[in-house]
Write a structure and sequence with these properties.
Blueprint lengths: L7 E5 L2 H15 L4 E6 L16 H8 L3 H7 L3 E3 L1 E5 L7 E5 L12 H10 L11 H8 L19 E3 L2 H14 L3 E4 L2 E6 L5 E6 L4 E3 L2 E4 L16 E3 L8 E7 L9 E6 L2 E7 L4 E7 L6 H9 L11 E4 L3 E3 L3 E2 L2 E3 L5 E2 L7 H14 L8 H27 L7 H8 L4 H13 L12 H10 L16 H21 L3 H8 L10
Helix pairs in contact: 1-6, 1-8, 5-13, 8-9
Length: 505
């Protein structure tokens, strides 16, 4: 049986999505297809996805990147999770950690034992059993050790990095593997009678043809939407924020090993510490606050002097109804947008690339392959959507119209079922390859004061004094491990600090 192998791939658009795709395909295809990326320096990139989740380590490892070199080149810092402020109620604060709470005891999720002990008078919060939470609070960091008996082997981490520098880093990598970059602005997309794209025409008259096209053109969806009319599923009735104003600022101290999300009157503000600056932004709903007031709010809540003029991004939360149509696959913002509340923007690029590699087509573009790609993409987007909606809906805030709206709205049924099950008995069941773990759901739900009415009855079969002693040992082990860690700034300075960067005291 012979296949009609893909010979020419054209990636439309650069930025993080385009160069991640180019690097991964060049590595995976090993020269079996010509890969060209066309982008214009005149067209800016969104570049707000500067915080990541631990899966990014798998992507960088797949490429064979040296982690210390990557951290230096992208001015990166390490990330142990996200601190949330004012989400459940004004004055509340909680941490969504990477890694796990404690360790499962007697084949039962740790938080079930914590709930049972809490009912018996346990006063230690769930956060006391998270190595990542305690290290983040202390400003500490170390990479995991290669000893499964050592609690430090369980550290899970990700990165904050400059998205523009990461794209440039991957561009050098991809070009080293034979990817050709073409500078130019696309003026026209040529579509055949059967609906497939055959090529693009540049503003200077040049044409670029290919067998397979990957649309990384951002919100415009130059191929997937403007040419092929894939359609868009609007989720703004659940996620009404439709603007973000962003600005970098100077650091006022050593970088923290976590992202911060602070709920504001009409949305939320991100704080992402890099080696050379802090990234800031205010995601908000234009129905409830003006652009001028949103900008003023952001600018009055910076750590240091702004390093650029604030810029505003406009978006509609949702997804393309099909991310793969004919011979075009949309990756990144071209396939849809979910606000970066849980740092999933870059992960969704990564997972789309992995899905594409698993379902890589030949020139027949079998509809069964396309359908499966779109099915998996839809499920992933809906699952991440639900987790983001959770943060808004599980609130007790009554201080502004936005919070009244999201608190009282009817969430998707898939989310309602998860909340009801957790509220009932602390149980949670992941659906297939769902991204967010039981730890993540427990962190956000308990952090926003959704406490189960009961615990799993099986937890009551274990001796409470024995469990109390085990949990005390866990707290002690975590405390001693954190005390022995270097500070986050010292760890970076020792291993991977970028040249000419000096951390503020």
């Amino acid at each position: 049986m012979q296949t009609e192998a893909i010979e020419d791939i054209l990636i439309v658009g650069g930025g993080t999505a385009g160069w991640m795709t180019a690097a991964a395909l060049a590595k995976g295809l090993k020269g079996s297809a010509r890969i060209t990326l066309v982008e214009s320096e005149d067209i800016g990139t969104v570049g707000v996805g500067e915080a990541t989740i631990p899966a990014i380590l798998l992507f960088n490892c797949m490429l064979g990147l040296d982690e210390d070199a990557f951290v230096r080149e992208t001015q990166a810092t390490f990330k142990l999770g996200i601190e949330f402020r004012d989400w459940g109620a004004l004055g509340d604060r909680y941490f969504h950690p990477f890694g796990r709470y404690g360790s499962d005891l007697e084949k039962m999720s740790f938080h079930q034992h914590w709930l049972r002990q809490r009912a018996l008078g346990e006063t230690h919060p769930l956060a006391d059993y998270s190595l990542s939470t305690q290290a983040a609070a202390a400003g500490k960091f170390v990479r995991p050790v290669d000893d499964p008996k050592n609690v430090l082997s369980r550290i899970a981490y990700a990165f904050h990095f400059d998205a523009g520098l990461y794209a440039a880093f991957l561009r050098r990598f991809a070009e080293g593997l034979g990817v050709t970059r073409v500078e130019g602005r696309i003026a026209d997309v040529r579509v055949a009678d059967d609906g497939a794209v055959t090529g693009v025409a540049l503003a200077d008259g040049r044409t670029l043809d290919a067998d397979f096209f990957i649309d990384c053109s951002g919100f415009r969806g130059l191929l997937i939407e403007q040419a092929l009319k894939a359609g868009y599923e609007d989720w703004s009735h659940w996620l009404p924020c439709d603007r973000a104003v962003a600005v970098p600022c100077e650091s006022s101290g050593p970088p923290t090993p976590f992202t911060r999300s602070t709920a504001r009157e009409a949305g939320w503000q991100w704080r992402i510490p890099l080696q050379h600056r802090i990234g800031n932004g205010y995601v908000h709903c234009s129905r409830f606050i003006s652009e001028e007031d949103a900008t003023a709010t952001l600018m009055s809540n910076l750590d240091g002097r702004p390093l650029a003029d604030p810029r505003t991004l406009r978006f509609t939360t949702g997804r393309r109804r099909a991310s793969w149509v004919k011979n075009v696959v949309a990756i990144g913002l071209a396939s849809g947008f979910l606000e970066p509340l849980e740092s999933t923007s870059i992960h969704m690029i990564q997972s789309a690339i992995a899905r594409l590699m698993t379902l890589f087509p030949d020139r027949r573009f079998d509809p069964a392959v396309t359908a499966e790609y779109n099915r998996q993409t839809r499920i992933e987007a809906e699952q991440i959507r639900d987790f983001i909606i959770l943060h808004y809906h599980a609130t007790a805030r009554v201080d502004s119209p936005l919070w009244d709206h999201v608190r009282t709205m009817e969430p998707p049924e898939s989310l309602r079922q998860k909340i009801d099950l957790f509220r009932s008995s602390g149980r949670f069941f992941r659906d297939g390859d769902e991204l967010f773990s039981e730890t993540s759901w427990a962190a956000v739900l308990t952090g926003q004061n959704v406490i189960p009415e009961r615990f799993d009855p099986m937890a009551a079969t274990h001796d409470p004094q024995m469990m109390a002693a085990k949990m005390a040992r866990m707290r002690d082990v975590i405390g001693r491990a954190v005390a022995d860690m270097p500070s986050h700034a010292d760890y970076i300075a020792r291993h991977c600090r970028a040249p000419h960067v000096a951390f503020a005291a």
